[in-house]
Amino acid sequence: MLPGVGVFGTGSTARVLVPMLKAEGFEVHALWGRSEEEACSLAKELSIPFHTSRSDDVLLHQDVDLVCIYIPPSMTRQIAVKALGIGKNVVSEKAATAVDSFQMLLMEGYVGEVQVCDVRVYGPSLLDQSYGWTCEDLMGGGGLHTVGSAIIDLLSYLTGTRAQRVHGLLRTFVQQNDTIRGIRRVTSDDFCFFQMLMGPCTGGVCCTVTLNFNMPGSFLHEVMVVGSTGRLVARGTELYGQRNGSKREELLLGDGSWAGPDVKDIPLPHLLGLGAMVKALRQSFQEHEERRLWARGPVAMAPTFEDGLYVQTVVEAVKRSSFSGEWECVEIMNKEPDPNHNICEAQKRNKN
Description:
The chain has helices at 12-23, 36-46, 55-59, 73-85, 100-107, 143-159, 268-286, 305-324, 341-351, and strands at 5-8, 28-32, 50-52, 66-69, 89-92, 114-122, 163-171, 191-198, 205-212, 220-227, 230-235, 238-243, 250-253, 328-329. The radius of gyration is 21 Å and the shape is globular. The protein is built from 9 helices and 14 strands. The N and C termini lie far apart (56 Å).
């Protein structure tokens, strides 16, 4: 028996996620939006019977046992913690590209000993049409938070190691535009470059990541893993490989078809990843008759909240490095952060 679902969010991801859930047999019983108008409009469009702007109304809904959270990062923690505290299952940002084939080929030794990873993501601006959380660094906006966090998790999954030291550079090239002007300025990064040394201090994996969201037009997403005997490259939804001594690369996986609606705000790799996640959720829950029980196997590759803590720690280390200009160590937090941390960060930024 599949659990009933409550969805938090009214953005483009939620708009695509709900039909995906329904197609896999899930019943979506409730929708939360920041305002009654937003929630009512999308609920009517997607035929969701209940909508609200009060989070508790979804969390305490008697038919909701699985909560899907796709809202601004600054609000995610509060809702996720409360949902887990009352025994609900939780799926939260971020959804990333499915990488089963990539991981299988790495395990089979296609590239040999992994030495270098190089990631490039280029695309148009991540800013909303009006001033909001996407414009503000301290609210989780910007390329590093939005896309870089998923890349950090992906590289850790592919290499089986975690970052020990990082060096980064963040820039905000577009601080104002036609709709965001006057006294308001964008503080979230639209360009980010960072390096990670992963695994042991000697003989580990060197990773470089470049994120540039000042490029209108097509979306570019490339992940390259180079090893002692060859390389693998994921370009968008296609996977290529080339062994040492080979004159040309070969297409290893090219089934990137998308049968759903065209969604301009979500790149194709992310759409396919979101679809793969929903299918894995269905497989995980359908093995149990109790709606709140699930099997780990189908969602084994999904990051946990512990992984989320690690990723956020790396993100914060990259931000420190951009400020200091030095390599920074990645140290996982073992206690609650200073509640005044964001205020201190804002004060530092204003001084500069």
